[in-house]
Amino acid sequence: MSTDKTSPADKADPTEPIHLDKPHEAPVDAPPAAGEAVTAVDPRLLVREQGFAGYLSEFKRKMKAGDLGSLPVVVGLIVIMAIFQSLNSNFLTAGNLSDISVAMVGTGMIATGIVFVLLLGEIDLSVGSVSGVAGATFAVLNVTHGMSEWLALVLAILTGTVAGAIHGFVFARIGVPAFAVTLAGLLFWNGFMLQVLGSNGTINLDSEGLVAKLTSYYFSDVAAAYGLAAVAVVAFFLTSFLDSRRREAAGVPSRPLSEIVLRTVLLAVPAVGAAAVYNQYKGLPLAVVLFLAVLVLTDFVLRRTAYGRKVFALGGSIEASRRAGINVVMIRTSIYAISGTFAAIGGLFLASKITAANQGAGSGELLMNAIAAAVIGGTSLFGGRGRTWNALLGVLVITSIQYGLALQGIASPIQYMITGGVLLATVVIDAVTRKTQKSAGRA
Amino acid sequence: MVHVSATPVLALRGVSKRFGAVQALTDVELEVHAGEVVALVGDNGAGKSTLVKTIAGVHPIDDGVIEWEGRGVQINKPHDAQALGIATVYQDLALCDNIDVVGNLYLGRELRKRGILDEVEMERRSRELLTTLSIRIPSVRIPIASLSGGQRQTVAIARSMLGEPKLVILDEPTAALGVEQTAQVLDLVERLRERGHAVILISHNMADVKAVADKVAVLRLGRNNGVFDVKTTSQEEIISAITGATDNAVTRRAARNAEVQK
Ligand SMILES: Nc1ncnc2c1ncn2[C@@H]1O[C@H](COP(=O)(O)OP(=O)(O)O)[C@@H](O)[C@H]1O
Ligand SMILES: [Mg+2]
């Protein structure tokens, strides 16, 4: 047989591993099995100790590797809130916090779409204009033409989907840089909105209507806010716990119960706190419920489905994705369609705030704020790193700055400069993180 | 010399590939049988990686025929090659830095349960696979970015073996590796052959080639420059075929020898 050609001197028995020490599993969290202590442990293996010493060393390792996650923005948010509270004791009142969380939803929805685009390492400059088109479309269909509210709402959102899909297709299929395509989109859709609005310029919405309710409706029953907080906390605990049980059963590393409890408590504190704040004012805002629902849904899609995995793969390496059989054109096009859809949804929330569609919609600082929110929240500009929850954190920072400065009576020039400074700090952290990760990787 | 099987798993007949002004491959012939390791050697720029990419569907061929188990086939995209049972480990590793080891192993063929990624099962099987191949990495849940070059290579090879392929192509798998990891990769290659896989191994290292290959196919400037039997050919003969130092008579003699051996 031709397979006999290797002389025994050349090579040991091929079924025998080449290592002198035994092949060794790499337990991350698993408790060390009895007798395993005898085996020589490769110092490179990341064996996490149990208990809080374990978390601490894991945390230090992550810090060293540049794996900061949402930590900088959470710290930043606390600092910002502390500063504004010290300047004006009205800042941390239930009314102000509730208003901030309703006002942020429009920009936050747009930023959610931007997170998808940033995950690819691309950009979408058209979202501001597209959001304006959605508001105008709804106003014209519903108010001018008397179409039913729900149908007009669906069509308005679909205008965003279609606009985004067009940008995505031109970018992905024809290969025009996304920057250029969406810059063209920015101009085109702004013109389109002005054309649709017509000579009048402003169309007022029904102040008791569906779109108006998006930001004006509050679940005033005290049970609503606490109920939602309780459901979220219990659901989080149960999914973590069941997942951990399944992992245990399959013999792969799982989170210990103590860690699950700790994480649940870390979620429960802000959840119940927010519910208490809302209940001190008008109750649980519908806008916040919808925003949270969108974040839960998009996070699930990105992290638990094959589609989401493909998005991250594309953000990591286009060539690797292509070779893994991923349809790059389809994913890219769909991402821009998603971005356009969320821009439209955001636009309806923004129209809802002012119960009107006007010529100024979607222009000015909106685009920059949406992108800044995604980035400040911790989404990497280099692609492949981020979560849609980043949009929530980022938009909270930006809206807090806006409201805090407004309380002080400080005009928007200063506000732009501060937001710009925060954004710069964030992208510097992003770039440094990326560098650290690279050098830590090659160690 | 015994043929492992009569029909080659993969046969290239007169394959050509052109990139703009560069004629990367001209009329290349190649046969690989099941349970056989064919080493593909040649100077830098000889067209080895290009040949691999045509087989893997990254660059469709311009001219010629690819036969799979005796039938002519079209390989136009990576998916076509995967569907036939061709797994490729590229020289420029096709891994995503930002995704963890499990995610990379299953990239493009994720296990799903009711439409949702079955992370637990993927992780369990990944650990199993890495253990069988005695591959050691710190954790299956850290991003590829934090692995060393050698560790990445072993992950890439493990990835190629997940789908039980019939043909495995390794493009310079040991180029960036240390002594121990090279031996490990060569062990993997032998294990593949024992399991009846066909293997195409690209390498610059003659010692590696001598250790595991059955046949050596030489490419020079995008053309065939002889196919040699490893057992009966000296290292010098192979090297002169690579560098083109052979005059035609020697080349022909070596080629004739190879034919006689069969
Ligand atoms: N994508 C490409 N575009 C243009 N030319 C290429 C491309 N890939 C390879 N080539 C050219 O084809 C020739 C063969 O390259 P390659 O197959 O990488 O050689 P090897 O792997 O044998 O070192 C080289 O001249 C190279 O420059
Ligand atoms: Mg090469």
Automatic annotation (TrEMBL), chain B:
Pfam short name (any one): ABC_tran
Keywords recorded for this protein, A-Z: ATP-binding, Nucleotide-binding
Domain ABC transporter as annotated: residue spans: 10-246
GO MF annotations in UniProt: ATP binding
SUPFAM superfamilies cross-referenced by the UniProt entry: P-loop containing nucleoside triphosphate hydrolases
InterPro entries cross-referenced by the UniProt entry: AAA+_ATPase, ABC_carbohydrate_import_ATPase, ABC_transporter-like_ATP-bd, P-loop_NTPase
ATP-binding found in the keyword field: yes
Coiled coil: none
Protein name: ATP-binding cassette domain-containing protein
Taxonomic classification: Bacteria, Bacillati, Actinomycetota, Actinomycetes, Kitasatosporales
